[in-house]
Amino acid sequence: MCAEHTPTVSLIYPMKAVILENMAENVHDSNLLRDVKQAIRDDLSKRYTDEETAECLILCAALVPRFKELPRLEPDQKDEVYANIQRRLLPIGEAPVKVSTLNCFC
């Protein structure tokens, strides 16, 4: 993201999840590597943690076709994200669309 002149908000959630996933301890890690990974996890896990910010980042990622599957969320969490998108986008009084139809754009 640092190399981009205009990083997009839709990359923050997926990249944070991937970095945290890759910084998991491994039995083959040396003590130094284990400490470095722990420091990275500790620092990164504190970022973007308030509920409103985290929700915004997940919504932004869900709206981008390459991240719409939200692979690091549980199925019920994914359903809630897409239901939240529908609530925000549908005018009051209009019939909701099934969540599965949101996946037809690719």
How are the elements arranged and paired?
Elements: H1 12-22, H2 31-45, H3 51-62, H4 75-89
Write a structural description.
It is a single chain. This protein is mainly α. It is 50% helix and 0% strand. The chain has four helices and no strands. It is elongated and about 60 Å long.
Task: Note the main attributes of this structure.
mainly alpha; 106 residues; 50% helix; single chain; disordered C terminus; 0% strand
* C-alpha geometry: elongated
Q: Would you report the number of β strands?
A: 0
Unreliable stretches, pLDDT < 50, 5 or more residues?
101-106
Cα-based radius of gyration, to the nearest Å: 17 Å
- Output the helix-strand order: HHHH
Count of helical segments?
4
The structural class is mainly alpha
Largest sheet: none
pLDDT averaged residue by residue = 82
C-alpha end-to-end distance: 25 Å
Strand-residue proportion:
under 5%
Helix content: 40-55%
In short:
The protein has 106 residues and is mainly alpha-helical. It is 50% helix and 0% strand.
